[in-house]
Design brief:
Blueprint (H helix, E strand, L loop, with lengths): L11 H11 L4 H20 L4 E4 L4 H19 L14 E3 L2 E3 L28 E6 L6 H14 L1 E6 L3 H10 L8 E3 L15 E3 L8 E3 L7 H8 L32 E2 L7 E2 L35 E5 L2 E5 L5 E5 L6 E2 L2 E2 L1 E2 L13
Parallel strand pairs: 1-4, 1-6, 4-5, 6-8, 13-16
Antiparallel strand pairs: 2-3, 5-13, 7-8, 9-10, 11-12, 14-15
Length: 356
């Protein structure tokens, strides 16, 4: 069957294809089977209502979100529910640490019943709790892709600012973050601080008490792109990756990867897409130190300072403290702890150039 994904709609054929890829007997298939198993384990321990996913629009967490949606769909088809499901066990040992399964005080909407006439615009699972830790001055294209993903995957997305430690605590302090015990993270081994991580790992002492779940920790850079572009999956991703960016962060320190630059005599340089990078160790070659804090949105811009925020679709800068904003995949305006939140439904308008 033909996969009919768009930035705002995920075809269940694409999600079912995840399990086809897992059975292909290839290195990617092995990684997919491994990741699916880790996600299933996280659901069995904590349940979907106590599980969140860290999502910032990057390629790795885009893979992870698609995998999670596939697992949720398969569990629905098989009547397994969304956990927790730990029969005859009071505790589960994960990487040497005791993890106690808990019972949720939060009631999520009942899962929709699958029928043969289910439109591909609907994903039959409760909203996915998710947190977006904002960097200073994010790319507009990334923001637009995140908004499209809120609609496509049915996310309950909370945006938080600050360093990771502060941002995670800010998230847990919101009504949307209350009760979250585990966070799915798209970290891989070649990421900073990723070399020694396990599939399941508690945050360090002094950090918010969360279990970090790393389903794609063993994936290579090439396997990420093989997954996103697999004919059976065709996962939508941020179009900046087609313009020479291989690792996305702040506009202050993120540049096109020089390893992808193509120079021709007498012509302006062009860049190959991220999936053309042959040496995965050069993935972050386009990340600078941010000297001068030069904000870039496709061209040069004046030097700016402060903390980036979004108002009326434009990027502004402020010295205020952390802000929290919730986006919902459902219609209507919602609030969290009295903070106005934006609707990620029909109001989300991604650029048409988002890659498929």
């Amino acid at each position: 069957m033909v996969v009919m994904n768009t930035p705002e709609r995920i075809d269940p054929v694409s999600l079912d294809g995840v399990y086809d890829v897992a059975e292909e007997g290839t290195p990617l298939g092995e990684m997919v089977r491994e990741a699916v198993g880790v996600i299933d384990r996280g659901l069995d321990i904590h349940g979907l209502d106590k599980l969140s996913i860290s999502f910032n629009g990057g390629k790795d967490c885009t893979v992870l979100l698609h995998l999670l949606a596939a697992v949720l769909r398969r569990r629905t088809l098989n009547g397994l529910g969304f956990g927790p499901n730990c029969p005859d066990q009071d505790t589960v040992v994960a990487d040497g640490a005791v993890v106690s399964p808990s019972h949720s005080n939060i009631t999520l909407s009942s899962p929709l019943k699958l029928t043969t006439s289910l439109p591909f615009t609907s994903l039959p699972h409760p909203p996915i709790r998710s947190v977006y830790v904002l960097c200073p001055s994010p790319f507009d294209a990334v923001e637009e892709f995140v908004e499209a993903s809120v609609t496509a995957y049915g996310l309950r997305l909370v945006r938080v600012e600050g360093n990771m430690k502060v941002a995670l605590q800010s998230y847990l302090d919101t009504s949307e973050g209350q009760g979250v015990e585990a966070v799915l993270v798209g970290t891989r081994r070649n990421d900073p601080h990723g070399a020694k991580l396990d599939f399941l790992q508690h945050c360090d002492p002094g950090w918010p008490q969360l279990l970090r779940v790393h389903p794609i920790i063993n994936w290579s850079y090439g396997q990420v792109w093989e997954y996103l572009r697999h004919p059976k999956l065709q996962v939508p991703y941020c179009y900046l990756y087609d313009e020479g960016y291989t690792s996305l962060g702040s506009t202050y320190n993120t540049f096109r990867n020089p390893a992808l630059q193509v120079l021709r005599p007498g012509q302006a340089p062009v860049w190959k897409p991220a999936y053309a990078l042959e040496d995965g160790s050069l993935e972050r070659a386009g990340r600078g130190n941010g000297a001068g804090l030069e904000k870039r949105t496709g061209g040069e811009a004046p030097v700016v300072s402060g903390v980036a925020s979004k108002e009326n679709g434009d990027t502004t800068f402020t010295k205020e403290g952390p802000k929290v904003m919730l986006e919902s995949g459902s219609n209507g305006i919602v609030t969290t702890n009295g903070i106005k939140a934006t609707d990620g439904g029909e109001g989300a308008r991604p650029r048409t150039g988002v890659a498929i």
